[in-house]
Amino acid sequence: MIDLVSIIVFVVLFALFVFLGFYGSRWRKGDLTKLKEWGLAGGRLGTFLGWFLLGADIYTAYTFIAVPSSLFAKGAIYFFAAPYVIITYAFAMWAMPKFWKIANKHGYITVADFVRDIFNSRLLAVSVALVGIVAELPYIALQIVGMQAVLIAMLHGFGATTTIIELSLVISFILLAAFTWTSGLRGATLGAILKDALILVSIVAVVVAVLAIGGFKTAYAQASATSIHYFQLPSSLYNAYWSLFVFSALALYLYPHVVNATLAQKDPKSVRKTASLLPLYSLGLGLLAMFGFMIYGVPAAMSYVKSFPASVQGTQVVPGLVLTLLPSWLAGAALLGIFIGGLVPAAIMAIAAANLFTRNIVKEFKPNLTSAQETKVAQVFAVVFKFLALGFVFIIPATYAIQLQLFGGILILQILPSFIFGLITKNLNRRALFLGLLVGVASGMYMMLAANNYATWTTTLISTGLGAVFIGMIALVLNIVVVLVGTAVARSMNVDNALPSSYSAE
Asked: How far apart are CA 380 and CA 358, in angstroms?
């Protein structure tokens, strides 16, 4: 369990993480008063650094805390995370190099920049930006849940009060805000390398430790004896499973933070190679998901988890295994890896949201902003969005924190017609795209409220004639139907949807 050695290792490595965050402003120097330099690391990252940055971007507290937590609480349905993060890279290898070329040619920082130009619509661009910002907030909140889980594990054994845990979280966020302001995406990239190294070592160590004590056999036997379906998906959830992994795969590369990390790379070749290498991380995600039932094979870890209220038990599955199986020094390192596995993505997500707010909302109405002013606005709102995200922490019980990411997915899926269809054709009507986006977001929100009986959110599935399905799928289908019908009607009425003369796709 936790002891002084674990605390010391945690604190020392956290100090190293903070140092790397601030050192980012000196590493690969650039003019950080320019938004591309501050918010995209100058767009000069190669395959190796792009791989680490996207790894930190995609494999977050969602992976380390939320997936095993949900699997522990609800069973095999949450194995959807394993196939989704594999098929999404096939999608990325087609879409993102194409988008990188267009963005580089026209100087785009965000997806909304692209949407504004190709469809010649300020209203559509602002709407895409707003949806992107709001979709990031619950995802940032999920990182906060993961960080809280680590702090609870670290300080619980010392009798720390909730106030001390919350104060520790606030101090961590202040340090994060400080180096994000100073170094932008450069600092997050360096922090990502440390985070990934610690996490990969820790996953292997826990799996080896479970194998050494024969825990897999015990875990399988005991988990099979429960009422939770850990190893066989009920037929009533088949459609829920495939809709979750297919539409989560479509959503991932729509998120502003993933787009940011993509545009931070130096050329389309690096973008493609990074996407081809990222499935290596999926091995770790699969193993972490298994922690959700593996804990049954480690009685000490299960006792630790059961010592907490039911609402947070799931979030303590991974910390519990770490603390009971690993030596103190390695446990401290592993917990720090999980902790900064929330901090680093939170920084990248806040930067991405701030880029959208600055370029596609503020600058739309104040076009004469200088480069330095533009960056200053982004720095301020990167801090603001981190703290706004705290509000989402209180609408979902910690054990079901994965719903924060899935709710963000429902929202971000609605920009797919404007962005991905825009890479294919310029002939969709901008008014139809705006109306489709509005219908998708509104219907998604309504179904979320209805599926959860207008109370605390614990699911993103809704019952239909086909059984339970992911709400994001239905909302996106409604969105696309509106876009296609609206475009057909506009054509029949000969409504103008001309492109600006300056735009030319690659």
From this structure: 10
- The answer to whether 61 and 342 are in contact (CB under 8 A) is yes
User: How far is CA 456 from each of CA 66, 349, 398, 411, rounded to the nearest angstrom?
Assistant: 17, 25, 11, 18
28 φψ region: left (φ > 0), alpha (ψ -120 to 50), beta (else): left
Q: Given this model, what pLDDT does residue 501 score?
A: 42
**CA pair distance 327, 478, nearest whole angstrom:** 52
Among 337, 355, 262, smallest CA distance to 58 is for 262
Output DSSP code: residue 469: E
**pLDDT for residue 169 is more than 90:** no
CA 446 vs CA 142, 291, 394, 401, 471: distances in Å: 22, 34, 19, 20, 10
Instruction: Enumerate domains of the chain plus CATH numbers.
Output: 4-19+41-402 (1.20.1730.10)
Q: Where are the alpha helices (DSSP H) in 160-237?
A: 162-183, 185-212, 215-224
Contacts 24+ apart (CB under 8 A), 268-272: 268/97, 268/98, 268/100, 268/101, 269/97, 270/45, 270/46, 270/47, 270/50, 271/50, 271/92, 271/96, 271/97, 271/100, 272/93, 272/96, 272/97
> E strand or H helix at 12, and its extent?
helix 4-23
Count CB-CB contacts under 10 A for residue 163: 8
Q: How confident is residue 157, by pLDDT bands cut at 50, 70 and 90?
A: low
Residue 312 near residue 66 (C-beta atoms within 8 A): no
| pLDDT at 251 (0 to 100) | 96
Tokens 């395959």 appear where? 47
**CB within 8 A of 15, min separation 6: which ones?**
none
Of the listed ranges 10-14, 142-146, 154-158, 265-269, the one predicted with least confidence: 154-158
Q: How does pLDDT run across 38-93, given as a tens digit for each residue?
A: 888 778 788 888 888 888 888 888 888 889 999 998 999 999 988 888 889 999 99
What's the longest Cα–Cα distance across the chain?
73
* pTM for this entry: 0.90
Greater confidence (181 vs 90) lies with 90
pLDDT at 400: 79
Residue-level pLDDT at 499: 52
Three-class DSSP category at 343: helix
Helix count (H) and strand count (E) of the chain? 25, 2
